[in-house]
Amino acid sequence: MNWTPEKLPDLSGKTYAITGGNSGLGLEAAKILTKKGARVVITARSEGKAQEALATVRAHSPGAEVSFVRLELDDAASVQEAASALTEACPRIDALINNAGVMQPPQTRTKEGFELQFATNHLGHFRLNSQLFEHLEKSSARIVSVSSIAHKFGSIHFDDLMGTKKYDATQWYSQSKLANLLYAFELQRRLQKRASRVTAIACHPGYSATNLQSAGVGQQGGSKFFRVLYKVTNAVMAQKAEYGSYPLVLAAADPSAEPGAYYGPTGLGQARGPVGKSYVHPKAMDQDVARRLWEVTESLVGPFFPS
C-alpha cells in the first residue's frame, strides 16, 4: 500500500476535529481535509496561533469551513469546556484526531500533579474522547490516536507513572507514545464488545519535521539540548510535515481504513516511505498491560464510558 491523499473521496458534509491543529501535522491534515471539501475544527492552546492557522488553511483551500476551539489537554477544566464547545459547534463529528502532544520537556507537573507528557499525550485525550463519546456515537465516528515510532522504546512505569522517583524526558515521552497505542487497541476491543458504532484507529507520522521537535514542549519551552539536536536531525533526516500527516488523514477519512489498524510510513525503520499498515512492537499488543493501563487511567481521570 502506498496511500496518498489523492485516494480520498469527496468529503463534503463531513466534519473532522483535530487537537493541536494550529501547526505541524494537525495543520497539514486540516489543509488536506478541507481541500477535499470537509469541515475542520482545530483545537489549540493559543487563540493567536490558531487564527494564523485558520488563515493558512483558508489560503490553501479557498472557501474552507474551518474554525477553532481552545483546549489545554493538561487541564481538566479546559478539556471539559472544549468538549462542550465541540459538541455545540459540531452537529456531527466524523473523526476526532488525537494529534496534540508535548515532547521531552523538563520535569513538569500539571495542576493535578500529573507528569506533563503523560497528562497531555495520554490522559488528556482519554478525557476528551470520553466526554465526547456519546456525541461521537451519534455519527459513527472514528477516534484516531497519533502514536510514534518512539513507542518501540517505551515502557509503562506502573510503579512510577509520573516520574516522581526518577524522571527521564525521553523515557517518559516514549511511555506516553506507547500508552497512545495501547489505548487505541484497547479502546477498539471495548468498542467492539459494546457493539458501538464508534471505531478506534491508530497512526504515526514517521520522523517528520514539526514544531514538536523544534520547540520541545511548544509554548512551554523545551530542552535547549533537544532543540539544537532536532534542528540538525530535522534538516538531515526528517520528511516534511505534509507527508507525516498522510497517515492521520488516512486513518480519519479514507473509507478503506480498518478499525484497530495502525497506519504510518513503512520504510526506513518506519521513519518515512510508503504509507500503509505499519510495524507494531509486541509490547503494544500486550492485552494485559493495555487493560491495566485502562484501569489505572480511569482511576486517575474517571470512567470512559457513560454509565
Task: Describe this entry's structure for a reader.
With 307 residues, the protein is of the alpha/beta class. It has one domain (10-296): NAD(P)-binding Rossmann-like Domain (Rossmann fold, 3-Layer(aba) Sandwich). The protein is built from 10 helices and 8 strands. Helix 4 links the parallel strand 4 and strand 5. The radius of gyration is 18 Å and the shape is globular.
Q: Please bin the fraction of helical residues.
A: 40-55%
Poorly predicted runs are 213-221, 225-236
End-to-end distance: 40 Å
Overall CATH class: Alpha Beta
Global mean pLDDT: 92
CATH superfamily: NAD(P)-binding Rossmann-like Domain
CATH topology (fold) name: Rossmann fold
Along the chain, the helix and strand elements come as EHEHEHEHEHEHHHHEEH
Which structural class fits the helix and strand makeup? alpha/beta
Number of helices: 10
Name the shape in a single word.
globular
Query: How many structurally independent domains?
Result: 1
User: What's the Cα radius of gyration?
Assistant: 18 Å
Strand order of the largest sheet: 3-2-1-4-5-6-7-8
The major pleated sheet works out as: 8 strands, mixed
